[in-house]
Amino acid sequence: YGACCPFHNEKTPSFSVSQEKQFYHCFGCGAHGNAIDFLMEFDRLEFVEAIEELASYLGLDVPREQRSGGNGSFQSGPQASSS
After folding, report:
1. Where are the domains of the chain?
2. Helix intervals (H) in the chain
3. Which of 53, 27, 58, 21 is nearest to 39 (CA)?
4. Which of 5, 17, 43, 60 is most enclosed, with most CB atoms within 10 A?
5. Which intervals of the chain are annotated as region Disordered (predicted)?
């Protein structure tokens, strides 16, 4: 697929998306990456925020990890969010 790049002003399309490779690239400004990279750049999100955004869009829960106590160990899964 081709289009005008959402990351810079242009009149001639230089933005390409490969559905097969699941990758985008702009030949004008050099922006490139996957769906997560696109969300991070387009919406100015941090990685975890982009993951949460995608998960929310798909109706998925994002598992959490939390430190337990002061011993530096981690808990994950349902028990981590309920502690």
Report:
1. 2-82
2. 35-42, 47-58, 78-82
3. 53
4. 5
5. 63-83
The residue written with tokens 């309920």 in the block is 82
> Which among 53, 80, 51 is positioned nearest to 67, based on CA atoms?
80
Tell me if 61 sits within 8 A of 55, measured CB to CB: yes
- Structure tokens given for 68: 């337990």
What confidence tens digit (pLDDT) does each residue in 5-51 have?
999 999 999 999 999 999 999 999 999 999 999 999 999 999 999 99
b/e map 14-37, b = 16+ CB within 10 Å:
bbeeeeeeeebbbebeebeeeeee
**Amino acid letter for position 20:** E
